[in-house]
């Protein structure tokens, strides 16, 4: 049965734009010999990881953050291309110029995706889906690339919608369709649900949005902490976060919960080396420069500790990160303890990095029946 969420209060028109296989698509655009070829942006040598994979490579199961050696094994003929972040940044800037032709309420998430609030827009266009369609067209014409767009009344649903028909997709989730749409999607599609959280939900018998919505706020909060309250609201189509153009990334990090606890320093060092690879990829993707490196450890008794060091330079090299993290490990109380989680992050942005345009976001009500899609 179709239900409506209009009674939830203020309704916005939100667009989520997500470039399709961004780094890989830029490389294929600039080098015709790579078109139609499975490519991975990243370093093939050593302990490199895939920063991005073309759709030709994805058909073989190649994914971002996958070790390069594994990617090469599962995809015969895979071509590795070294990343050119300076080029990606320029393309991203041109993409944002297109966004600002319609609204200044733009929240960048990374180089290749952003939220736009077009409730009130420069074009005076009442149909949010028309703006999304025009943006996609301009990205194709001016940049020679494709993007997928999601349109809905909040950020959670707009992001789900942009993933729904990739690549080169356009999907609208109307308030009258939202709850039925959410009911059908797997929990893995919910914002903030990674493999570990999904496995915990499955253990509780929660596999889709309908089963998630049947859970009480108390149960979800008990099982997932603060995230449980967010999952409770998402399952009901509620996400009141505004699109925030004034936004500064304060840190970039990654962590892993081990299937088996680590018991030796050597094992922890190996995990640190692997995390350093992924952290460098995330730093590059986020265009972030931070001088403080933090090592986080969680033990088998669920207690945790962290050790940090601030350097006179930004942490961007995987070897320097790994070496510094090992020095931090020597300061942590790991002897005789079992480690179940290891995390690395960089923080304290250098002056002027990751800054965002300041704008006074307006949040107005409007009638979905007259101009949403």
From TrEMBL:
Its cofactor is Mg(2+). One of its GO terms (cellular component) is cytosol. GO terms for biological process: DNA repair; DNA-templated DNA replication; error-prone translesion synthesis; SOS response. This is DNA polymerase IV. It comes from Duncaniella muris. NCBIfam families: PRK02406.1. Monomer. Its EC number is 2.7.7.7. The active site is at 113. It is an enzyme of class 2 (transferase). Binds 2 magnesium ions per subunit. It is found in: Cytoplasm. Keywords: Cytoplasm, DNA damage, DNA repair, DNA replication, DNA-binding, DNA-directed DNA polymerase, Magnesium, Metal-binding, Mutator protein, Nucleotidyltransferase, Transferase. Poorly processive, error-prone DNA polymerase involved in untargeted mutagenesis. Copies undamaged DNA at stalled replication forks, which arise in vivo from mismatched or misaligned primer ends. These misaligned primers can be extended by PolIV. Exhibits no 3'-5' exonuclease (proofreading) activity. May be involved in translesional synthesis, in conjunction with the beta clamp from PolIII. It catalyses: DNA(n) + a 2'-deoxyribonucleoside 5'-triphosphate = DNA(n+1) + diphosphate. Mg(2+) binds at residues 18, 112. Belongs to the DNA polymerase type-Y family. The gene is dinB.
């Amino acid at each position: 049965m179709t239900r409506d969420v209009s009674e939830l209060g203020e309704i916005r028109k939100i667009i989520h734009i997500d470039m399709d296989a961004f780094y890989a698509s830029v490389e294929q655009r600039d080098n015709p010999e790579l078109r139609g070829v499975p490519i991975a942006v990243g370093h093939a040598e050593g302990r490199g990881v895939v920063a991005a994979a073309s759709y030709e490579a994805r058909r073989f199961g190649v994914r971002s953050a996958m070790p390069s050696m594994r990617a090469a094994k599962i995809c015969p003929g895979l071509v590795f291309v070294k990343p050119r972040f300076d080029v990606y940044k320029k393309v991203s800037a041109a993409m944002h110029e297109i966004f600002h032709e319609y609204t200044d309420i733009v929240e960048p998430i990374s180089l290749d995706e952003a939220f736009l609030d077009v409730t009130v827009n420069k074009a005076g266009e009442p149909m949010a889906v028309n703006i999304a369609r025009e943006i996609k067209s301009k990205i194709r014409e001016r940049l020679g690339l494709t993007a997928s767009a999601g349109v809905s009344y909040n950020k959670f649903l707009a992001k789900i919608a942009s993933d729904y028909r990739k690549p080169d997709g356009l999907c609208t989730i109307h308030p009258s369709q939202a709850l039925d749409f959410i009911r059908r999607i797997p929990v893995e599609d919910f914002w903030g649900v990674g493999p570990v959280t999904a496995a915990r939900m499955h253990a509780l018998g929660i596999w889709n949005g309908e089963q998630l919505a049947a859970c009480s706020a108390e149960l979800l909060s008990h099982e997932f902490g603060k995230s449980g309250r967010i999952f409770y609201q998402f399952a009901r189509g509620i996400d009141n976060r505004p699109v925030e153009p004034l936004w500064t990334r304060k840190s970039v990090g990654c962590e892993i919960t081990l299937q088996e606890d680590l018991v030796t320093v050597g094992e922890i060092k190996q995990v640190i080396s692997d995390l350093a690879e992924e952290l460098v990829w995330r730093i590059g993707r986020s265009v972030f420069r931070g001088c403080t490196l933090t090592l986080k450890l969680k033990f088998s008794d669920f207690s945790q500790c962290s050790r940090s060091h601030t350097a006179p330079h930004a942490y961007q090299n995987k070897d320097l990160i790994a070496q510094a993290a090992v020095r931090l490990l020597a300061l942590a109380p790991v002897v005789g303890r079992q480690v179940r989680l290891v995390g690395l992050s960089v923080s304290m942005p250098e002056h002027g990095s990751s800054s965002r345009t300041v704008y006074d976001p307006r949040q107005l009500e409007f009638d979905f029946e007259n101009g949403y899609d």
